[in-house]
Design goal:
Neuraminidase, 1% helix, 4-stranded antiparallel sheet
Length: 705
């Protein structure tokens, strides 16, 4: 998707394309680790299900979120109300698919957002409830496409938001649940709107109070009500439902049906061509805010839910729409606002063409697939557990796992037994399980929790000649504490300490079997920290470290690549210092160096055309080194300046000892991963983009060849 979005709309057009309109995105305000400011967008785009690509359309006249979008009989789409981030809107616009532009139409009588809209049999659009400029409203309106005007109609019995409005086969509209923040805050009541009289009447009551649920018209005329929040409780597991019920228009009553395996609200429910309904994502455990990647399918014939494939990303408050192919498109939302997934009922699986990731790992498996881990976005402070596999044949991402715990700034190491060892993460206070390692088995697609390790992140993990793994360095408190992972027993033991505590360094296995550790941040003190020029060698036979080098330029966030002749290329990074208060001073490094194991010395080479740090480096089939992306500035960290992600790439020729320009990426990105695929192409995934204050996580995937 071109723009991250939540509280947006998605509408299937008559020609099979899908219109995505407005919404909000979240930006980083420089004051905390997570983004905290929202902006409202006027942008819109169209998804082509044949090419599975997005194209920008003309912009809205007014940026808006919490609006409605309704496909009219003439093929145009009515965009009504919403908020511009400051006030509720009365304005409405029409999208014309023949010109891909928006034009104003008559305004609402009452400004409102998070209302509902339903297309009536007479071609008019019924607007109900939501937030008005002053409070929740019970008022309703009708839009007439023939005149382009809104007029008032009968009001609901109760003002509501978080409700659903479903047009029944008899032409009436069923309004279900929602709330008004009174006591109790959610409704058990439902209402029927009769377009013939313009009047509401009460109908059967729900079995439980619900808002943020879904309502789906089944092929037999009943309405399926699924999940939602009920009693307003903020205690885990007390405010949301796994239950479902159906409304029968002939009797005007609700009847409980089978329950889901998982409590959820803010999910989507989409009817499939076979009459079944796929329920995807959402969240549960309101007090701990657990976003979901699970999905279930409801069968009206049996009244039962069964599990189906897992989403690629956790998704909540997202949007979903059926495609003409029978598949389902899922777009954006609160947890993964730039994510797009497709559900295929034929296989019961979800897939994505792109993947949003930052501070993640990418591990090439022996079968050619690539394993990705970590969180999808700064927006999600709880992080996700779901790992993802990229299939180079179909060029799709699909879920695997899940991990025993989400990780970021960790390591993922392919072992000689083809399993992947995941260790460490940034030490969030709510992630005590990060002291345990994960072992991924590609054969079963499962993770197994291993024994405890030291709390570490920004460390290195290197497979030694005997198949064991050296874990070296980390941010506090581990800095000098190293460990050895025994692949045969799947246990960790303490190894000899580093000569110099370091993090965000590199570690490279030399042809001699020794490990070269270079640069990084030095151990923190009461005055701050500085980048290191020191280097050391680990001898796995003796189990000791010895000094080597040093570098000509101190650096961290650099890359290290083993050349075919056994030397090691050190590229880029950042050199400088940081105060105890978090103020950085320094510069991105353009100078590059080569380490010669025979001499134990570094010599200058290159340099890069552009100094960069947090870039990616990958060795190509011809032995050249591709350097992609990165940033020419440091994190803001309490400063007003923003990092500047780079789209440029450079090629290092070991024979000439110089860099030349390579093709630039389409999207600037900082902290991406770059993986050489079996066909010789390079897969570039994730990182930060230049947009939205430099902290938008990139979802666009690129291939270099």
């Amino acid at each position: 998707m071109l723009t991250p979005r939540m509280k947006h709309t998605v509408t299937a057009l008559a020609d099979g394309r899908v219109l995505i309109v407005g919404g909000q995105y979240v930006v980083y305000d420089g004051s905390a680790m997570y983004m905290s400011a929202t902006k409202t967008t006027a942008s819109a785009e169209v998804y082509d299900p044949v090419t599975e690509t997005f194209v920008a359309t003309g912009a809205l006249a007014s940026a808006r979120y919490g609006h409605t979008a309704t496909l009219l009989p003439n093929g145009k789409v009515l965009i009504a109300g919403g908020s511009n981030g400051t006030a509720q809107l009365m304005t409405a616009e029409l999208y014309d698919p023949t010109t891909d532009t928006f034009q104003p139409t008559g305004g609402l009588v009452t400004a409102r957002r998070e209302h509902t809209a339903a297309l009536l049999d007479n071609g008019k659009v019924f607007i109900a409830g939501g937030y008005s400029s002053t409070d929740l409203t019970a008022t309703c309106e009708l839009y007439d496409p023939a005149t382009g005007t809104f007029t008032m109609t009968g009001a609901m019995v109760a003002a509501r938001v978080g409700h659903t409005a479903t047009k029944l086969k008899n032409g009436k509209v069923l309004v279900v649940g929602g709330g008004n923040f009174a006591s109790p805050p959610t409704f058990v009541t439902t209402e029927l709107y009769d377009p013939a009289t313009g009047i509401f009447s009460t109908t059967g009551a729900l079995s439980a109070r619900r808002d943020t649920h879904t309502a789906t018209l089944l092929t037999d005329g009943r309405v399926l009500i699924v999940g939602g929040r009920g009693n307003g409780s903020t205690s885990a597991g007390q405010g949301e439902f796994a239950t479902a019920e159906t409304y029968d228009p002939t009797t005007g009553t609700f009847t409980l049906t089978g329950s889901m395996a998982t409590q959820r609200f803010a999910h989507t429910a989409t009817i499939l061509a076979n009459g079944k309904v796929v329920i995807a994502g959402g969240q549960n455990q309101l007090s701990t805010y657990t976003a979901l990647s699970s999905a279930e399918v409801f069968d009206p014939a049996t009244g039962a839910f069964t599990a189906t494939g897992t989403l690629v990303n956790v998704m909540t408050a997202h949007r979903a729409v059926p495609l003409s192919s029978g598949k389902v498109l899922l777009v954006g939302g609160q947890e993964a606002p730039n994510s797009v997934e497709v559900y295929d009922p034929a296989t019961g699986t979800f897939y994505a063409r792109d993947l949003a990731r930052i501070f993640h790992t990418a591990t090439l498996l022996p079968d050619g697939r690539v394993l990705f881990s970590a969180w999808p976005d700064y927006i999600n402070p709880w992080a996700i557990r779901q790992a993802v596999l990229f299939d180079p044949v179909s060029r799709t991402f699909r879920s695997t796992g899940p991990m025993t715990r989400a990780r970021v700034s960790h390591t993922a190491t392919l072992l000689n037994n083809n399993k992947v060892l995941m260790v460490g993460s940034y030490p969030w206070s709510n992630t005590p399980l990060l002291l345990r390692a994960d072992l991924y088995d590609p054969g079963t697609g499962t993770f197994t929790a291993l024994g405890s390790t030291e709390s570490r992140s920004w460390h290195t993990a290197t497979v030694l000649p005997d198949g064991n793994v050296l874990l070296a360095g980390a941010v506090p408190p581990a800095f000098t504490i190293n460990e050895l992972y025994d692949a045969a027993t799947a246990t960790f033991t303490v190894a000899a300490p580093l000569l110099t505590g370091r993090a965000q360094h590199t570690a490279t296995l030399l042809k001699s079997g020794k490990v070269l550790l270079v640069g990084g941040w030095g151990a923190s003190s009461t005055t701050g920290s500085t980048t290191l020029s020191s280097a050391e060698l680990y001898d796995p036979v003796a189990g000791t470290f010895s000094a080597t080098g040093p570098l000509a330029t101190a650096r961290n966030d650099h890359t290290a690549s083993l050349l075919s002749d056994g030397r090691v290329l050190i590229v880029g990074g950042w050199t400088g210092s940081v105060t105890a208060g978090g103020t950085y001073s320094g510069t991105a490094v353009a100078a590059s160096e080569v380490y010669d194991p025979a001499m134990g010395k570094f010599t200058t080479t290159g340099p890069l055309a552009t100094g960069r740090a947090r870039h990616a480096a990958v060795t190509l089939s011809d032995g050249k080194i591709l350097i992609v992306g990165g940033s020419n500035s440091r994190d803001p960290s309490n400063q007003a300046t923003e990092p500047t992600p780079l789209a440029s790439a450079e090629l290092y020729d070991p024979v000439a000892g110089s860099f030349t320009a390579a093709a630039s990426m389409r999207v600037p990105r900082r902290s991406p991963t770059a993986t050489l695929l079996p066909d010789g192409k390079v897969l570039v995934v994730g990182g930060n983009a230049a947009g939205f204050n430099g902290h938008e996580t990139v979802a666009t995937v690129e291939l270099y060849w």
